[in-house]
Design goal:
Length: 144
């Protein structure tokens, strides 16, 4: 119920999984898939962003045992959608998109899914997250 900035989401690699609504079949499947995948990706966080109210997001996660994904609601002012180009103003929904952000808050991968009923390219997003994680680990391993 409070504003969240990219800086607030930590310094690990993050996959921002943007969906129109968790209560739709493709969004449901997308979020569940990333919930399963993040368990195999140490150092990566998944943030699911939608226009769903926080209460609906919490209900959905509880109903399906989704506990590896942090949900964020853009319902209040649509600032995420406006800033990242995912807002469909006429419908007041987010379009489907994936962003991979590294530990320095640099975007390493972007996919705007053309059709709302299509799935994102999971493998490309996960590969970008693995690469960003390796680059972050490599950076910390080198003497300064």
């Amino acid at each position: 119920m409070k504003p969240v900035t990219l800086k607030d989401t930590g310094s690990q690699v993050r996959i921002l999984s943007v969906v129109p609504s968790l209560d739709t079949p493709v969004c449901d499947a997308q979020t569940k898939r990333f919930n399963d995948e993040v368990a195999k990706l140490p150092g990566v966080a998944i943030l699911a962003i939608s226009m769903d109210l926080p209460f609906a997001q919490k209900r959905w996660c509880g109903a399906f045992g989704v506990d590896n994904v942090k949900t964020l609601s853009d319902h209040k002012d649509a600032s995420f959608g406006s800033n990242y180009g995912t807002l469909i103003k006429e419908l007041r929904l987010e379009s489907r998109a994936i962003f991979v952000v590294d530990g320095r808050n640099q975007i390493r991968y972007v996919e705007y899914v053309k059709e709302m009923t299509d799935y994102p390219n999971y493998e490309a997003a996960l590969s970008a997250a693995r690469s960003a994680t390796a680059a972050t680990a490599d950076r910390w391993a080198r003497p300064q």
